[in-house]
Amino acid sequence: MKPAPSIIFFTVASGAGYGLLFWLGVLKPLGILPASSMFSATAAIIALALITAGLCSSLLHLGRPERAWRALSQWRSSWLSREGVAAVLTFLPATVFLIALAHGENALMVPSGLLSALGAAVTVYCTGMIYASLKPIKEWHHPMVAPGYLLFASFSGVSLLAMLAIFWGGGFFPALVAAALGLAALMFKRAYWASVDATPAGSTRESATGLGFIGKVRPLESPHTEANYLLREMAFRVGRVHAAKLRSIALLLGFALPALMFCLAIILGGGAAMVLGLLGAASAIAGLLVERWLIFAEATHTVALYYPTQR
Amino acid sequence: MPDGSTTDRIAYSAPIGDEVKTTTCYMCACRCGIRVHLKDGRVRYIEGNPDHPVNKGVLCGKGSAGIMTQYSPARLQAPLKRIGPRGSGDYAEISWDEAMEIATSALKKVRETDPKRLAFFTGRDQSQSLTGFWAAQFGTPNFAAHGGFCSVNMAAGGLYTIGGSFWEFGEPDWERAKYLLILGVAEDHDSNPIKTGLAALKKRNAKVVSVNPVRTGYSAVADEWVGIRPGTDGLLVMALIHELLRHDWVDSEFLVRHTNAHWLVVRNPGGADDGLFVRDADGKPQAWDRAQGAMDAAAADLSPVLVGDFTLADGRIARPVFHLMAERYLGAEYAPEAVAERCGLDAERIRRIAAEMADVAFNQTITLDQPWTDTLGRRHEKMVGRPVALHAMRGISAHSNGFHTCRALHILQMLLGAIDTPGSWRYKAPFPRPIPPGPGPAGKNSKPNTPLAGNILSFTHGPDDLLVNDDGSPIRIDHSFSWEAPLGLHGMMHTVIGNAAKGDPYRIDVLFMFMANMAWNSAMNPLETIECLTAKDASGEYVIPTVIYSDAFFSETVPYADLILPDTTYLERWDCISILDRPIGSSHGPGDAIRQPVLKPDRDVRPFQDVLIELGARLGLPAFTKEDGSARFKDYADYIVNHERMPGVGPLAGWRGEDGSAKGVGKPNPDQLQRYIENGCFWRHNFSAEESYFKHSNKLYLENAKAMGLIGKSDQIVLQIWSEPLQKFRLAAEGHGAKQPPEALRERVRSYCDPLPIWYAPLGQEAHDISGFPFSAVTQRPMAMYHSWGSMNAWLRQIHGANRLYMSRAKGEAMGIAQDDWVWVESRNGRVKGQVTLMEGVNPDTVWTWNAIGKRAGAWMLSPDAAEAERGFLLNHVISEWLPAQTGPRLANADPITGQAAWYDLRVNIKKCASGEEGITAPHPSALTPPPNMPEPPKILRFNAGGQKP
Amino acid sequence: MTSLPTPTPGARKLGLVIDLDTCVGCHACATNCKEWNTSGHMAPLPDHQPYSAAQEGVWFNRVHAYEAGDGDEGRTVHFPRSCMHCETPACVTVCPTGASYKRAEDGIVLVNTDMCIGCQLCAWACPYGARELDEDQGVMKKCTLCVDRIYNETIPEDRRVPACVSTCPANARHFGDLGDPNSDVSKLVAERGGYELMPEMGYQPVNRYLPPRKASSQVKTAPKEAGPLPSQITNPLLRWMDKVLSR
Ligand SMILES: Nc1nc2c(c(=O)[nH]1)N[C@H]1C(S)=C(S)[C@@H](COP(=O)(O)OP(=O)(O)OC[C@H]3O[C@@H](n4cnc5c(=O)[nH]c(N)nc54)[C@H](O)[C@@H]3O)O[C@H]1N2
Ligand SMILES: Nc1nc2c(c(=O)[nH]1)N[C@H]1C(S)=C(S)[C@@H](COP(=O)(O)OP(=O)(O)OC[C@H]3O[C@@H](n4cnc5c(=O)[nH]c(N)nc54)[C@H](O)[C@@H]3O)O[C@H]1N2
Ligand code: SF4
Ligand code: SF4
Ligand code: SF4
Ligand code: SF4
Ligand code: SF4
Ligand SMILES: [Mo]
pLDDT tens across B426-439, in order? Predict the structure, then answer.
């Protein structure tokens, strides 16, 4: 699948935003985070900004963005519609939460925080399910995809939270969670790759054409000698060697380095922790951008079976 | 019916357009009937005419894309006069008046001095009855259409053997055949009927066997694919004949009734009558009757003997044709095991195919309860058919041994008794014709201001009919009908430009061409052709002083002409698909068709036929002027209706006579075109069941055909196994008669003019060392593209925007060549670069590509970096027009009998490109400059006749 | 509406049956589809760079060629591909706007281009590559099963079939109700072993493909008696010497 920058940015940014919102919503009521309302407000604003920027970016992917509102109508069947509805609905408690945080309204903060967390989780889950529900793409139609979205969103969110908390001097717990989730994400992603690499394609040229009863099927001529929308969109495939490199980069940058930095931040504390927290969060986001690029670039769509393998 | 429960507005019953007109498709030469729907003055939809006999409602990929041809930016806009050097593309737009003035004055001078110095050659058009007639009126023998490089081997092979031919003059009995052997066919002129026919055969569970080095298209749907090595079909066919003879799987009754198998041939080696038929005083061929000895071979009460040597009353020895034939093909050199390796096939398989054909022919006969009467007046209660059909085209034709291979195929049919019988191959009306028909070609003595009497393209019966000077040198610029191509029925367009540039046999003043892309895909070695068109003599004048060309589009040839006469598109003009030329008849009956203008041209263009008729009048050609010197015809429509070739015979056969009631022969009918339009722009007469088979011997058919003007005589047409005209040429080469070939050609004529089919290795391969060129290289017609025309069609060029070199996967891998690699294709003539696709279904010693996809940069209003110019390549660059250098005259790379261009004799080597050479084809001549005022091609096309949603 | 209509027994399932045994790969179905539809219900079907490099456009039907198997058993198969009008198509259910819908009355899957936002999710969801983005208008388009032909009362009844079907010269395309076991198309599918593509996807495509047949059974046994080799008899021609023939 062709990695569309608007979608990559959208899932990473809004994923991190929802992750941040989630942790803020859960941890704030528990009182584990710095008490400063400045901290809370900053965190919530960053979360909402990321979410909004992500959603706006996703509109760029639309052929007719001015009609985007129509996407809210089909929540009965469409995960994309559900994502939209969840995203819009989440803005309600999230706005209340933001106000409550800014004003230190604890009574409002707890329910609105928890509801925001719930909304964030549901939205991210819906995002994951958009991909996980697509049968023609075996790398996406996989039981680890939706949990993965949740895990990566919560990891990137908590990384941002940890970074902010370190600035406000209370980063121990979030940094610990970030390091732990980083390691978890690393193992999870490796397990996912191991699993998809080992899963044979459910569909083949033979099943796509039904000609397997004759023998091996090889494309001879494409319908048109030049490219087309479907080929550009669905038959994009990153080279093996390149992909292996990028996988390592994603694991290292996205998960291993941040985990290490957050551990070091906990150990070193002080100014060093601030630098490490910043670097950890940045590394996590950068790594996730690579991971997300790979999610597309490594995904194979059954449409490609109809065409000669792209060289 | 939909319940309309959604908000989507669907106009279920929107009328297709506001107007519909019938006409005839010309996205290729198949001539399907179409219905053109117009909306707001634009073409909304073109569909097949369900009532039309050719296509019965279907349309092919090209026909359906006609809209994009109509609206192509490559359409020429106005007459053009060259103002820069040839090839520069510097033109000035001129008025039609000026254009006609220029053409008239150039042509007038030629006609007044030496009409030969006009070479008038036309391409893939369908108005040869007009253009040929015009040339004869002008008085030049130098006329032909493109048939010489197309398929004259099929035409000549058939017309000299069975009085019809595969090509366009015959077809398998699609309704009844049980076995079809189809050789070397990719698409053919009968595009839609073949597809429809194959589907019908398969539905009836008939077996289809395709002999073709490549397994695509028709070969892909065949039950059996025989991946033969190119150029060796003759051997395969003769091996099949060998098998039939060896087993006596032969329909001897058919042979003695319908062929010359029993005719006696004089055996007198070295004598002037050797190999000629034994004839009585009246010239009637003789056969040997079991009881009475030599007698009229056509007699009814004859019991002919097929083998043996007989002594005639005058003491000469004679032998029946059958004997001579059987003797030859029973020879060990034609046994399957002897030919198998050369053909790249298994001997067992050849034997099986022969046995299958025999099984179907003799064990699965078709008997129709249909009485008929033969030419001897004998009534037969039934029609018995051998349901084995054959069809063949340019895979046979485009080789220098194609004429003989084609004849061998017809002999195979005759042995099976499978000519125009139920289930077999059938003649398409107006065939069969006498073998060979009519008087010889006109043009022996052209004189100033004098029309030639007769047809320029006609049939030679022997040396006397040749167009040669006393020293044996050619009279025609293309050397057709000379000793180089004694049966050059269709001319040799592929040699015209080369010969004209060399002055061989003489210089010409005007080269006048119509609808032939001679500076590119219809030339062998286009770069040399371009050199000839731009060559100058010592005085700085072009060697070919004047080039006049009519095209409808900005093709590669346009920049090389001095005067461009822009034509209309097929939807903008009258046309006539005439029974005098290439009509739309079928085995069911004769037919013809017209095109009517469905749109008005939006440019300053004129139908070429109108222009030609007006030129005829301006030049004062007798048939085109009235007694007072004024124009006889207003335009082509007027000519179609009122021109009479012979009294009562005109371009159209339908609705003749003043009241429109006559068929074939009758007075001109002023309402004729209207009647055609009312009938969907075609006319068709259907044969009765009794006339439908055995047409060569069917009394009722022959008499009716004569009455309709299809043939001149109603005599039986005896199929010719032994070809006497060929023997006459051979005798001349052996030193007999007044007209003999020049020394340099004597041996060539002697060996190739064999009265029985022979096989020899393609000439171009024999004459040089081919060990360095292990692959045969051929092209195929893509079904969705018509020669070069399709590339300016926005839809078709998406289907074939570039072409690959296809080769065997195993061979490629062994040579270290991978899918998509760039390779050089090298021949004795040079090299061309292209990109490889590996495949399974190809003869391992053959490479191939789609024909005419590669384009010269800049042509056809495509951007110079278009795929067609960068990744498309033209195999023609490595095909030579001439045989490898040898002593004696320069000889065309062509069949030695018919002059048919030998496109598919090509041998090549494949070499991987060095790194850095990939990405763009070579040769890659400089980009052409478009003529002035061509429209700017759009960046995006949103074709939608009638606007947005209805 | 993006939810699928509730399946009802005996509901009409209009679709195509494509005969791979006779398809010669002529692209007629593809170009005729293009000309019909570019001025039809989902008009236009735009073409980008129509006269320069990288030409491409919207086509509802595309014809591939494959080679299957090796050696003498191998075949070349021409293979048209368009929308299968699936019974349970995710292209419809993923659509967030309701632009994509499947009709209860005949099973045709359509896009309402007035509602489509061009999110392309349906294209991702279609295993068969049957969705075509009009990048000019920013909306999704696809095979309509020629809904503006098959019910069109201004067209003679026997021609009320999809454009691709009416034009196919090789009679390789058939149209009808695959929900009715007694329809001509259903019988054809039963007779010829028609199959669906990628059944493992679970979309339940309505269109069926008829497989290339093995080979004709017409030729039963070739005549048995082996002819003599020419070398085995002194003069093979003698066989015809005494053959009594009459004209
Ligand atoms: N390598 C290779 N070369 C081949 C062949 C092959 O098999 N292999 N085949 C050969 C054969 S059989 C043939 S017939 C030739 C065909 O070769 P051509 O006859 O040259 O082929 P076309 O491309 O059809 O081009 C004819 C010209 O007619 C113009 N034209 C189209 N429509 C009209 C019209 O309505 N009016 C006018 N005035 N002009 C029009 C086109 O623009 C084009 O320039 O190619 C030959 N060349
Ligand atoms: N779509 C489309 N239709 C056309 C045309 C077109 O350009 N496009 N052109 C028209 C014209 S002008 C013509 S002349 C006809 C030609 O009609 P065809 O004769 O059908 O055309 P070719 O493409 O020359 O096909 C030759 C076939 O012979 C095979 N072949 C080559 N060498 C040999 C051989 O030695 N033995 C055997 N057995 N097979 C061999 C090739 O693989 C190819 O399949 O088509 C006409 N119809
Ligand atoms: S075969 Fe195709 S292009 Fe040729 S006349 Fe028929 S519809 Fe037109
Ligand atoms: S029109 Fe018919 S034969 Fe031609 S490609 Fe389409 S299905 Fe095949
Ligand atoms: S083929 Fe694709 S577009 Fe058509 S209904 Fe099925 S899933 Fe939808
Ligand atoms: S592109 Fe249009 S039709 Fe497809 S899912 Fe999105 S809104 Fe629906
Ligand atoms: S049914 Fe209509 S829209 Fe669909 S492929 Fe055929 S012609 Fe095109
Ligand atoms: Mo041709």
Answer: 999 999 999 998 89
Tally of CB atoms within 10 A around B848: 27
Residues of chain C in contact with residue B227, where contact means CB-CB under 8 angstroms, are none
Question: Closest-CA residue in chain B for A221?
Answer: B837
Q: List B776's β-bridge partners, or say none.
A: B846, B907
Predicted local confidence at residue B4, as pLDDT = 41
Q: State the distance between the two ends of chain B, measured CA to CA, in whole angstroms.
A: 19
Q: Mind listing the pLDDT tens digit for each residue in B244-272?
A: 999 999 999 999 999 999 999 999 999 99
Q: Does A203 touch chain C (CB under 8 A)?
A: yes
Q: Quickly tell me which residue has 């009908």 as its tokens.
A: B481
Mark residue B283 as left, alpha or beta (left: phi above 0; alpha: psi -120 to 50; beta: remaining): left
Residues less than 5 Å from ion ligand 8, measured at CB: B 150
3-state SS track over B130-164: HHHHHHHHHCCCCEECCHHHHCHHHHHHHHCCCCC
φ/ψ of residue B713, rounded to 5: -130, 155
Q: Which two tokens stand for residue A173?
A: 């717990």
Distances (CA, A) of B100 to B43, B94, B611: 31, 10, 8
Q: Does B820 touch chain A (CB under 8 A)?
A: yes
Question: A268 burial class (0-12, 13-18, 19+ CB within 10 angstroms)?
Answer: middle
Phi, psi of A130 (to 5 degrees): -55, -45
Q: What's the whole-number mean pLDDT along residues B373-379?
A: 96
State both tokens at A167.
């600035």
DSSP code of residue A301: B
- For B24-63, what is each residue's pLDDT tens digit? 999 999 999 999 999 999 999 999 999 999 999 999 999 9
Dist. CA A237–CA A304, nearest whole Å: 10
Contacts of B925 by beta carbon, 8 Å cutoff, 6+ apart: B527, B530, B856, B857
Please state, as a whole number, how many other Cβ atoms lie within 10 Å of the Cβ of residue B333: 13
Cα B692 to Cα B169, B391, B697, distances in angstroms: 15, 19, 11
Sign of the CA dihedral A52, A55, A61, A62? Answer: negative
- How far is Cα C211 from Cα C193, in angstroms, rounded to an integer? 7
Res C148 pLDDT > 80: yes
How far apart are the C-alpha atoms of B130 and B109, rounded to whole Å?
22
**So what's the ipTM on this one?**
0.96
Record the pTM.
0.97
* Residues from chain C contacting residue B335 (CB–CB below 8 Å): 230
DSSP string covering B50-107, please?
A: TT-TTTTT---TTGGGHHHHHT-TTB--S-EEE-SSTTS--EEE--HHHHHHHHHHHH
Cite the DSSP H helix spans in chain C.
Answer: 28-38, 90-93, 121-125, 147-150, 163-167, 184-192, 238-241
The Cα B938–Cα B935 span in angstroms is: 9
Neighbours of B689 (CB within 10 A): 13
How many whole angstroms separate alpha carbon B570 and alpha carbon B23?
9
Q: How many alpha carbons fall within 13 Å on the CB side of residue B210?
A: 25
Which tokens hold the place of A187?
A: 């193992």
- Alpha-carbon span A258 to A276, nearest angstrom: 9
Comparing C-alpha atoms, which of B735, B922, B704 is closest to residue B832?
B922
**Residue B752 above 90 pLDDT?**
yes
- Strand intervals (E) in B283-428: 286-289, 293-296, 310-311, 317-320, 366-368, 372-373, 379-380, 383-385, 388-392, 425-427
Q: Shortest CA distance to A21 belongs to which of A94, A96, A84?
A: A94
Closest to B416 (Cα-Cα) out of B227, B589, B261: B261
Are C30 and A223 inside 8 Å of each other by CB?
yes
End-to-end CA distance of chain C: 78
Which of B57, B247, B257 lies nearest to residue C247, judging by beta carbons?
B257
Task: Detail the DSSP E strand segments found in B423-543.
Answer: 425-427, 510-514
Rounded Cα gap, residues B716 and B718, in angstroms: 6
